[in-house]
Amino acid sequence: MVIRMKHTKGKRNRVRSHHALTAQKLGVCGHCAKPVQPHVMCKNCGYYGTRQVVDVLAKLNKKEKKQKEKEIQKKSN
After folding, report:
1. What's the number of domains the chain is made of?
2. What residues make up the domain containing 53?
3. Is residue 61 part of a domain?
């Protein structure tokens, strides 16, 4: 099949001008002050806004749990 109407370089470039990638916008967690995506639970502390959704410490083993608790205490002081 033969192309009936060829697109010019200008038309091609105007179309492609909207294909650029943009940097992802990040907010700050209100509980632990880590960067977090908007409208997504914080993976560090398990909070969404002001309420706790997931208990992150329950999924860790004993050694990791102590380390995480120290880190949270250090941030809150």
Report:
1. 1
2. 23-76
3. yes
Instruction: Give me the residues paired with residue 35 across strands.
Output: 28
Residue 43 near residue 32, CB atoms below 8 Å = no
Q: What is the pTM of this model?
A: 0.55
Six-digit token pair at 1? 């099949």
End-to-end C-alpha distance for the chain, whole angstroms? 71
Total residues belonging to the chain: 77
34's tokens: 């880590």
Q: Which residues contact 60 (CB under 8 A, 6 or more apart)?
A: 68
User: pLDDT tens-digit profile of 31-47?
Assistant: 888 899 999 999 888 88
